[in-house]
Amino acid sequence: MRMTFTSNHDENSWSGSEFTRFGDALEPMTALTFLLPNALPLIYTGQEVGYDHSFEFFDRDPIPEYKPNSYTEFYRKLINLKHSQKALQAGERGARVIEIENNAKDCMMTFVREVDGSRVVAIFNLSPYTIHADFRTGIYAGKYYDALSGERVVLDDHVERDIAPWQYQILVK
After folding, report:
1. Is the CB of residue 125 less than 8 Å from the CB of residue 96?
2. Tens of pLDDT along 8-40?
3. What is the pTM of this model?
4. Rounded (5°) CA angle 87-42-89
């Protein structure tokens, strides 16, 4: 199994924290690590509390304060999503990625993972620019829940809307 991550010991120590490396892209990139097939997400020390610090590579470097916060809640939601949706299971048990063709393939990812009644639709603007998205969802149109907000969402057959920089949506059925 591959591990997907936004940070690990080497990256954090030598290249800086994920906040430094990813900037505004951090949240959607983190969410993607929980959605990709044949992979397991890695949560590195301190990420679950938003600790923005590069650790010393060879020295003990403890986290000074370890209180749950908005990062903790974000990771809890992603972990719950990964465990509650059969489509997102790792390895052969999970679903393959089915791309939804869109008009901005160089900046936007739109895909579905579906197996045994579990369906996850992902819409990601992976750029620092507002994109005027235009795509058809076909058989994937319908009523969903937003995986992170819990709100009910209707995914139309034809989606045409502006998507803000680094904005993303994970829908579950």
Report:
1. no
2. 888 888 888 899 999 999 999 999 999 999 888
3. 0.91
4. 15
